[in-house]
C-alpha cells in the first residue's frame, strides 16, 4: 500500500487513509484471546470477518447507512467512507454475559438499566438493552450510563445511535438465531458523515465485535462456549500460561479447527464460503 498513510492499528486490524474521504480497513488473520494477541495466525480469518461485515452491511442498509464503499479483491480489505467517529462504543446486549453479567451481579443494573431480579448468567433479557461504553485507548472499555453517553455525544445523537443499534441487533440476532447462532451481544461504532448523517462504521456483527454462541450448546446458568474461539481457549487453559504477553503458539490442529469454525459461521450466516 505505497500510497496509503497508516493511521492506526487495532489488535487485529490496520487502518490507512486513501484520501480525504476514504479509508482502507484491513483485517489480518491475527486472533486475540484473554485480551492478548496470539503469535499464531488463523488462516482466512481476516477474509471471513471482512466478508461477514460486508454481508451485514448489505443486509442492514435499509435500517442504517454504513461506511462500506468497496470490498477489495484480496477479500480482507475494504474501502470505507471517512467519518467523524462518535467517542462511544454502542453495545447492545440480548443476553446477560461478560461485563453485563458482572455489573448486574454487583448492582442489579447495567448502564443504568434496572433489570429484573434473579437473572442468571447468560440468560436472555426480556428486551435487548443499549449499554454504551467508553472507548479506552488502553485497557478495558468501561460501561457508562445512558445519561453519561448522552452528555458526551448530545441527546439527539444519543437517541439516534440507541435506536439504530437496537434495530440492527434485533434484525441480526433474529436472522442468526434461525441459523443456529446466538448473538449474545454486539458492539457498533457510528460516525457522522459530511452531511451530518449518522453512519455505521467499523466492522459489524462479526465474532470479533460480538459474542457468538452455538445455539445447540446454549444453557442458562453457564458461560456458553465461544462459537469461534473455544478451541483456542480450551487449549490455552491446558497450559500454565498466566495470560500476559507473550502468548504461547497454537498447535496445528487448534489452528485448523478454529479456521474451520470461522468459515462455518460465515457459511451458516451467508450461505457462501470465501473464494
Ligand atoms: C475509524 N477506527 C477504529 C479500526 C484501527 C482502528 N469510517 C471511519 N472513519 C473514520 N475513522 C474510522 C472509521 C472506521 N471504521 C475506525 N478508528 C477510526 C480502528 C481498525 C483499525 F487501527
Structural summary, described in words:
- The protein has 275 residues and is of the alpha+beta class.
- The chain is 30% helix and 27% strand.
- The protein contains six helices and 16 strands.
- It has helices at 45-59, 98-107, 146-153, 155-177, 230-237, 252-270; strands spanning 5-9, 13-17, 22-27, 32-33, 36-37, 68-71, 77-81, 84-85, 88-95, 109-110, 113-114, 124-130, 133-134, 181-192, 198-201, 210-214.
- Strands 8, 9, 12, 13, 14, 15 and 16 form a seven-stranded antiparallel sheet that branches. The protein has a five-stranded antiparallel sheet with strand order 1-2-3-7-6.
- Strand 2 (13-17) and strand 3 form a beta hairpin.
- The radius of gyration is 18 Å and the shape is globular.
- It starts with a strand and ends in a 5-residue tail after the last helix.
- The relative contact order is 0.17.
- The mean pLDDT is 97.
- The structure holds ligand PZK.
Short description:
The protein has six helices and 16 strands. With 275 residues, the chain is α+β, with helices and mostly antiparallel strands. The site of ligand PZK has 17 residues, from strand 1, strand 2, strand 3 and strand 7.
Report the uncertain regions.
Answer: none
Overall radius of gyration: 18 Å
Secondary structure tally, helices: 6
SSE arrangement, N to C:
EEEEEHEEEEHEEEEHHEEEHH
Q: Which ligands, by name, code or SMILES, are bound?
A: ligand PZK
Mean pLDDT: 97
Number of strands: 16
Amino acid at each position: 500500500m505505497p500510497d496509503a498513510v497508516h493511521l492506526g492499528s487495532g489488535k487485529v486490524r490496520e487502518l490507512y487513509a486513501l484520501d480525504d474521504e476514504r479509508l482502507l480497513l484491513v483485517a489480518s488473520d491475527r486472533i486475540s484471546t484473554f485480551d492478548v494477541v496470539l503469535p499464531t495466525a488463523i488462516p482466512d480469518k481476516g477474509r471471513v470477518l471482512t466478508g461477514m461485515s460486508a454481508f451485514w452491511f448489505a443486509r442492514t442498509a435499509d435500517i442504517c447507512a454504513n461506511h462500506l464503499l468497496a470490498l477489495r479483491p484480496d477479500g480482507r480489505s475494504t474501502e470505507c467512507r471517512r467519518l467523524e467517529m462518535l467517542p462511544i462504543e454502542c453495545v447492545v446486549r440480548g443476553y446477560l454475559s461478560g461485563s453485563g453479567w458482572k455489573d448486574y451481579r454487583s448492582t442489579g443494573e447495567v448502564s443504568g438499566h434496572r433489570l429484573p431480579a434473579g437473572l442468571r448468567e447468560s440468560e436472555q433479557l426480556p428486551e435487548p438493552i443499549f449499554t454504551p461504553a467508553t472507548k479506552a485507548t488502553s485497557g478495558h472499555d468501561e460501561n457508562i450510563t445512558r445519561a453519561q453517553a448522552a452528555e458526551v455525544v448530545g441527546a439527539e445523537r444519543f437517541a439516534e445511535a440507541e435506536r439504530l443499534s437496537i434495530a440492527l441487533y434485533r434484525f441480526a440476532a433474529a436472522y442468526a438465531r434461525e441459523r443456529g447462532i446466538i448473538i449474545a451481544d454486539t458492539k457498533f461504532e457510528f460516525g457522522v458523515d459530511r452531511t451530518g448523517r449518522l453512519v455505521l462504521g467499523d466492522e459489524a456483527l462479526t465474532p470479533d465485535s460480538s459474542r457468538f454462541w452455538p445455539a445447540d450448546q446454549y444453557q442458562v446458568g453457564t458461560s456458553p462456549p465461544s462459537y469461534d474461539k473455544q478451541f483456542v481457549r480450551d487449549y490455552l487453559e491446558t497450559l500454565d500460561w498466566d495470560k500476559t504477553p507473550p502468548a504461547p503458539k497454537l498447535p496445528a490442529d487448534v489452528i485448523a479447527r478454529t479456521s474451520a469454525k470461522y468459515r462455518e459461521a460465515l457459511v451458516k450466516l451467508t450461505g457462501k464460503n470465501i473464494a
